[in-house]
Design a protein that fits this description.
Blueprint (H helix, E strand, L loop, with lengths): L2 H11 L16 H12 L27 H14 L1 H4 L12
Length: about 100
């Protein structure tokens, strides 16, 4: 049995309501942190994201992330203090990078 199945089963035993969210990726290395920053800050992905997106894709069919406003705000503050290159290497060379 998978860990999610076990968790759902245990929650049901104590009559705790559960909701399964769409599968997404973890951010636990530099590559996935870059991907997250690309999704949150790159101009071409700006908020053709969540509102009105279908199955995690924008109107052009490109996979996009969730709005994650608190994560975006935190990363923006961190980049302001630590420097963008430390958090999102190469961002200044990407077209449309803001923040």
């Amino acid at each position: 049995m998978t860990s999610i199945a076990t968790s759902v089963e245990r929650a049901a035993e104590i009559r705790l309501e559960t909701e399964i969210l769409p599968t997404w990726y973890d951010v636990d290395d530099g590559a996935t942190l870059n991907r997250l920053c690309d999704e949150l800050f790159a101009a071409e992905n700006q908020r053709s994201n969540v509102e009105g997106s279908q199955n995690g894709k924008n109107s052009e069919g490109v996979e996009v992330g969730y709005a994650a406003p608190f994560t975006r705000e935190y990363l923006a503050r961190l980049m302001a203090v630590e420097g963008r290159e430390r958090i999102w290497p190469g961002a200044t060379t990407r077209a449309g990078a803001d923040g």
